[in-house]
Fold this protein.
Amino acid sequence: GENVEQHPSTLSVQEGDSAVIKCTYSDSASNYFPWYKQELGKGPQLIIDIRSNVGEKKDQRIAVTLNKTAKHFSLHITETQPEDSAVYFCASDSWGKLQFGAGTQVVVTP
Amino acid sequence: DADVTQTPRNRITKTGKRIMLECSQTKGHDRMYWYRQDPGLGLRLIYYSFDVKDINKGEISDGYSVSRQAQAKFSLSLESAIPNQTALYFCATSGQGGTGELFFGEGSRLTVL
């Protein structure tokens, strides 16, 4: 089945700096790659997604890039703010179900 | 009110007890899912249902069962709870028509002593 690896597991960044989280997947048939943000005590929420027909997508301070040949995709957060502190999960689709990475704890320090 | 509601939010039980976690949604979605979250392991799929008459096992279904009572309701049962089922459980829904956004509940934290 699909396997999604996510790195790093924890990431500490200075407020205003950029954060990058990377994921790799194994199923070459995967076509959908969402990113979810989980704040403390809440369920994950979709923040951005990308489909295999594009290489990059941007939404304000967040962007996702996809390299289908290498089977990896990344989340980029620019100008980080305290409210960006959370756990972030990447995922890829496999037969209509999402396979999630292990998560990245992002801490933005003032 | 939340679109996806899970009850109970917290539960402490003992080994061997039967536990049911309930989920209801008001989004009108056909697809419902149960995930388990453990530190360092991400979200792992336990069971999923694409409509009322459809039940499918996920990657970690052993020791769990589910019931889809209606389009809006999907419950997860642990017939005989064991300590390694201590985890945070999430219900989620998504619309029909291919892979799309999952809408998660706020989670049910289960502790098995």
Chain A touches chain B through 25 residues (CB under 8 Å). Residues 6 and 41 of chain A are 22 Å apart (CA to CA).
